[in-house]
Amino acid sequence: MVAPVVVGILSASLALLAAGRLSGRIGYLLQSAGWAVMACFWGVQTVFVELIATDNVSNAFFTGMAAAFSLYLSFHAFNAWALDVESRPLRFMAGMAVISSVIYYPFEWSTAMAGGIVQFVAVQTAWSLTLLGYSATAGGVHVVGSEVYVPIEGTKVSIILACTAIQAFAIFGGAIASTHAPPHAKAQALLVSIVPIHLLNIARNVGIIVLVTDHGFDFDLAHSGIGKFFSLIVLIVILYYIFTILPGLYDDIIGVLTLGEDIGGHGRGGSGVGMLEKGGGASEGIASPHGPHDEGVPSVDEERDAPGDGSAVADGEEGT
Q1: Distance between CA atoms of 310 and 320, rounded to whole angstroms?
Q2: What is the 3-state secondary structure (H, E, C) of the chain?
Q3: Angle 26-44/88-109 helices, nearest 10 degrees?
Q4: pLDDT digits (tens, 9 = 90+) for 207-237
Q5: In whole angstroms, what is the distance from residue 31 CA to residue 91 CA?
Q6: pTM of the model
């Protein structure tokens, strides 16, 4: 069970970011505070969850980077407040953080919600295997500590939360909802991202299970090598296509990466991408392309892509 203090830190951060997203100049001061609190959240995840609780150094590296990135955003939000400039990329990031967190963490922290989506994906994965001639069925929902899993009976693997692509849904959903675009364009972008991600994630699960169960592939090779490479290519292709539907999303992402030039260099030859001085001194320049786990118990998403506890999937089973 997640510690109440962790929920409290994240809730405080999201409340500040949400208020900062909707407010005027003072909103950037609220965003700065919100990102600072978010950095504390990721710091707690890094030290107490990834290093002390699970001894997962690789995950600790990524959560540590998230803490550093939060401080980066906090610094630039404070500068936007101090210089009285408007930054669309900062408002985009605040909205994305709130929406993505609201989508993801209820599943991460609620075994009931996690069990539902894990069962949903496990049933479809097992059904897909039967289409290929395998005798496979989805077992019942099991909970070990904070980890929820569903074994694919007839194979050596189980489905866990990280196998459902909920992280990708949260990130894409938050980004699409937070960018500036007509509602119909956002709806189209959601359709061409969420549906393919889900279907291709099922295909990924099936592929890893077949490689491990039927062809004797080493699990780490099938999962961490082939499976993750496949996922990366799929997400890049989908993101590129979304840019053609929502060119402003590309501008927002590039703007986040160049905040040092846009805000720090404001009035000193900064690029001005996504910036608009309240007094009208800088135009909004847009350069658009237009055109879980105990040792020895691996899962298809053994190295989790989002924060959370790592715990056993099943004795003697591999999870997908």
Answers
A1: 14
A2: CCCHHHHHHHHHHHHHHHHHHHCCCHHHHHHHHHHHHHHHHHHHHHHHHHHHHCCCHHHHHHHHHHHHHHHHHHHHHHHHHHHCEEEHHHHHHHHHHHHHHHHHHHHHHCHHHHHHHHHHHHHHHHHHHHHCCCCCEECCCEEECCEEEEEEECCCEEEEHHHHCHHHHHHHHHHHHHCCCCHHHHHHHHHHHHHHHHHHHHHHHHHHHHHHHCCCCCHHHHHHHHHHHHHHHHHHHHHHHHHHHCHHHHHHHHHHHCHHHHHHCCCCCCCCECEEECCCCCCCECCCCCCCCCCCCCECCCCCCCCCCCCCCCCCCEEC
A3: 40
A4: 999 988 887 777 777 767 777 888 889 899 9
A5: 9
A6: 0.81
Tokens representing 318 are 């591999």
Domain boundaries, the chain: 1-83, 85-319
Q: Which residue has the tokens 């959240």?
A: 41
Q: Which residues contact 131 (CB under 8 A, 6 or more apart)?
A: none
Q: Measured between alpha carbons, how far is 206 from 222 in angstroms, rounded to an integer?
A: 11
Find tokens 């539902």 and name the residue. 116
pLDDT in tens, 273-314: 455 445 443 333 333 344 444 433 345 554 434 444 433 343
C-alpha distance across the termini of the chain, in Å: 22
- Measured in degrees and rounded to the nearest 5, phi and psi for residue 55 equal 50, 45
